[in-house]
Amino acid sequence: MKKAKIKVNVLYTQSEGSTFNMDYYCNNHVPMVKKTLRNALLSVSVSKGLGGGVPNSLPRYEVIGCLFFESMEIFQNSFGPNAEVIGKDAVNFTNIEPVIQISEIVLNE
């Protein structure tokens, strides 16, 4: 089994007036991304924020989507040509401009 070394975090910031349709995201958007990126994408995770570091506070991020790839080159070659198509679908589930962070996985136990 291939091991992920690159993690692409797509962070949707929680704010007043923000909207996010989790059902559409999980049942339409994520499957479309998986189909589009095919074998380049090793796995996907979606996390829903429940709270912040202070008791009873809102989470900083409403949703965090993570895409896992074997290498930076594989990520760039698969995502780059499809970024526009994937990005255009965002209007169907959110009004939040996501924060993107690409990370190297240095420890995964």
Instruction: Enumerate how many helices there are, as a single number.
Output: 3
At the first level of CATH, what is the class? Alpha Beta
Question: Helix- and strand-based class?
Answer: alpha+beta
* Morphology: globular
Spatial strand arrangement across the major sheet: 2-3-1-4
Q: Quote the CATH topology.
A: Alpha-Beta Plaits
**How many distinct domains?**
1
Please state the CA-atom Rg, rounded to the nearest Å.
Answer: 14 Å
Report the major sheet.
Answer: 4 strands, antiparallel
Any guess at the CATH architecture?
2-Layer Sandwich
Uncertain runs are: none
Report the count of strand segments.
4
Please write the string of helix (H) and strand (E) elements.
EHEEHHE
Mean pLDDT: 96
N-C termini distance: 15 Å
Sheet-strand content, in percent, reads 25-35%
Q: What is the share of helical residues?
A: 25-40%
